[in-house]
Amino acid sequence: MGGEMKPMKTNDQLEPTVFVIFGGAGDLTWRKLVPALFDLSQDRSLPAEFAIIAVDRIKLGDDALRRRLHDGVNQFSRFGKAKTAAWNQFAKHIHYQQGDFKKPATYAALGKQCAKLEKAWGTKAHRIFYMATPPSMFGEIPKYLGKAGLSRDREFARIVIEKPIGYDLESARALNAILAASFDESQIFRIDHYLGKETVQNILAFRFANPLFEPMWNRRYIDYVTITVAETVGVEHRGGYYDHAGALRDMVQNHLMQLLCLVAMEPMVSFEADEIRNKKVDVLHAARPISRDAVPQSAVRGQYGSGNIAGKKTPGYREEKGVAPDSKTETFAALKLFLDNWRWQDVPFYLRTGKRLPQQASEISIQFRAVPHRSFPPEASLGWQPSRLVLSIQPDEGIVLGFQAKYPGPKMQLRPVDMRFSYRESFDAPSPDAYETLLWDVMKKDATLFMRADQVEAAWELLMPVLEAWQATAPSDFPNYAAGSWGPENVQELLSPGHRWPLPTELVLADKKRGKNS
């Protein structure tokens, strides 16, 4: 670990901060949190006085932990392998504390360590408590922090909680009550890494910073909206967790609902965190309730069997490690939702997510209504498609607008063409990792991109009839889609006449390059 020691890049305007990571020896810390904090340090986005205290149960010294985290940074930092001097300067801020999450002594020692750092710095520090632990600890750690007095200072103490926020509406309310007993709502940061992605945040900029599309962002011009989060991966090492969750809990209740809120929300008066969060909650309150009887017409579930992805044979879900051989858990979920308000009345919002699908893609597709009258001759309209706007979140961040144009030649012939904006091509600066954005916001105490308790509970309330109906009636046809396909066949039945699930933009553009008409 040789090399010249240079001063670490820091932001002197940020106040001293202590990051306490419960589960500091775990995978999330290694893969996401510390690489994100290291990258922030390289961008001059950490305070001059900061410390990372990793708390976990296993016996581990500072040096051993630093070696492990160094490996994670080398693999997952967006800057690539860390330079020796940069890592050495960063690593000296990392400390390990062994302790049981359910013993008061752990929190007493933590309080002493924070006080010791503050004394050395000569000033009060912000204390961020991050629960990078199994969900079973989410309801325990806040209680002990409260009893130890570590949550008392509303200005300087805050807590970060990962999903899942509960298992259903009842458990989400119970967890929110536990958090509220020790922390004020302003101190609670419920993190959803999807909201840290540049294109997700750009939905607000696209809609409200430009006068072009917002006047058309309503039922008069928009026919329907599809939101797709497709994954090619299976459950990987999460089989034990996933088999008790499923796609509806794991993805729809949080990620897809967040995207729905950003697409459908009303314009905000200001960029204040609570103003934006109020508008998002309004969307969920406007969602038409799904009755238990209407679930078959409003929701479709699926589970993947064996198949092929990219020419590779892929096992079925029930063959995955940690999954019951007769599992009834859905790996695919699709919903048809309506929002009962002036802007969106009778416009269907189709949401779908699934594992082992043919293409990784996270996209929002806005399908505009067709022109009321086609004045062109029939031969001009071959391949006619209504205009469509696609907000692509993954894998290639960007925006694509499809519309009609005249094909070169003496005849009047129309063909669909695309106007495309790509983040990668338009900006020299690489997009920061979502966790960088969100951790920076936690430091600044900016809750704009974080879920509030009422939003979490409203999302659960909307989905509970679907969960209850699916629990009451076991699926008889699982597995009902092959790995490498676009889900179960009956997902088409959710669509109104004339509507369709769009292919991901990447596939459409590839087809067009090959001369095909998508």
Per-chain topology:
Elements: E1 17-22, H1 27-42, E2 50-56, H2 62-76, H3 84-91, E3 94-98, H4 104-121, E4 126-131, H5 141-147, E5 157-161, H6 169-182, E6 188-190, H7 198-208, E7 222-230, H8 239-242, H9 247-264, H10 273-286, H11 295-298, E8 299-302, E9 304-305, E10 307-309, E11 312-314, E12 332-337, E13 349-354, E14 361-368, E15 388-394, E16 398-406, E17 414-422, H12 423-426, H13 434-444, H14 453-472, E18 481-482, H15 505-513
Parallel strand pairs: 1-2, 1-4, 2-3, 4-5, 5-6, 7-13, 9-18
Antiparallel strand pairs: 7-14, 8-12, 10-11, 12-13, 14-15, 15-16, 16-17
* Unreliable spans: 1-8
Annotated CATH topology of the largest domain: Dihydrodipicolinate Reductase, domain 2
CATH 2nd-level architecture of the largest domain: 2-Layer Sandwich
What would CATH call the homologous superfamily of the largest domain? Dihydrodipicolinate Reductase, domain 2
Q: What is the CA-atom radius of gyration, in angstroms? A: 25 Å
Question: Strand order within the widest sheet?
Answer: 8-12-13-7-14-15-16-17
- The share of residues in helices is 25-40%
The major sheet is characterized as: 8 strands, mixed
Tally of helical segments: 15
**Large-scale geometry:** globular
Any descriptors?
518 residues, alpha/beta, Rossmann fold, Dihydrodipicolinate Reductase, domain 2, eight-stranded mixed β-sheet, six-stranded parallel β-sheet, 18 strands, disordered N terminus
How would you characterize this protein structure?
The structure is a single chain. This protein is α/β, with parallel strands linked by helices and 518 residues long. It has two domains: 17-162, 3-Layer(aba) Sandwich (Rossmann fold), CATH 3.40.50; 195-513, Dihydrodipicolinate Reductase, domain 2 (2-Layer Sandwich). Helices cover 33% and strands 19% of the residues. The protein has helices at residues 27-42, 62-76, 84-91, 104-121, 141-147, 169-182, 198-208, 239-242, 247-264, 273-286, 295-298, 423-426, 434-444, 453-472, 505-513; strands spanning 17-22, 50-56, 94-98, 126-131, 157-161, 188-190, 222-230, 299-302, 304-305, 307-309, 312-314, 332-337, 349-354, 361-368, 388-394, 398-406, 414-422, 481-482. The strands form four sheets. Strands 8-12-13-7-14-15-16-17 form an eight-stranded mixed beta sheet. The protein has a six-stranded parallel beta sheet with strand order 3-2-1-4-5-6. Strands 9-18 form a two-stranded parallel ribbon. The N and C termini lie far apart (54 Å). Mean pLDDT is 88; it is low at 1-8.
